[in-house]
Amino acid sequence: MKGTFSKQKELRQLVQAAKQQAKLLEVSSVESLPRRRGTWRRGTWPCAPTLDDLRQKVLGCTLCDLHRGRTHAVFGEGNPKAALMFIGEGPGREEDRQGRPFVGMAGQLLTKIIESIQFRREEVYIANIVKCRPPENRVPFPLEIAACRPYLISQIEQIRPRVICALGKTAAWALLNTEIPISQLRGKWFEFGGVRLMPTFHPAYLLRNPQDKRLVWEDMKKIRQELGSHKK
Ligand code: SF4
Known about the structure:
By secondary structure, the protein is α/β, with parallel strands linked by helices. It contains 9 helices and 6 strands, in the order ααββααβαβααββαα.
């Protein structure tokens, strides 16, 4: 009897996942999916014609269950033509309250990190893997990451940064389709859809482990070097 219940539950979850995926494809006008997760061809994820249109879609999005607990969807902010884009995991309590990314203590540290390489916060673009706050700040589920992915890819396509900095394990894993520890990924160059990508530690991790700020500083120097004088 117990086995039957768990099978029914599994079936319900599968049906829900299939429905979400169908809704996702419909809303993002996607006709074909990239062959490998972690990569995409430019122009194949036409979520919305402009960044503002995309923002409006995200603000009203109900594609995954994370919309149920949000106060605000956090689309992202910064220079729409930024050379450097930071991608974190998802909004926390303060971000959800204000509708802006990285505004809590981790956000203040991120601002300092940005300024350490002679950028102003408004010169870069800051976004997250998921746009709505997971309950109790838990790590977003794979289905939630998948549901939100077309928004992020469309954002990257609109902004066309020269470099992406993935902040923390969740962002790095979601973008690179890997489960290699962040300690081994950080400071190395990867490619994501033709954009140079470097993972580093998440500022929230640095608040708990300040001894590793030195490593992030090393990563930031590499990013600065890669960008040269480019800010756009
Ligand atoms: S997390 Fe992304 S996919 Fe889920 S409801 Fe929010 S905007 Fe939509």
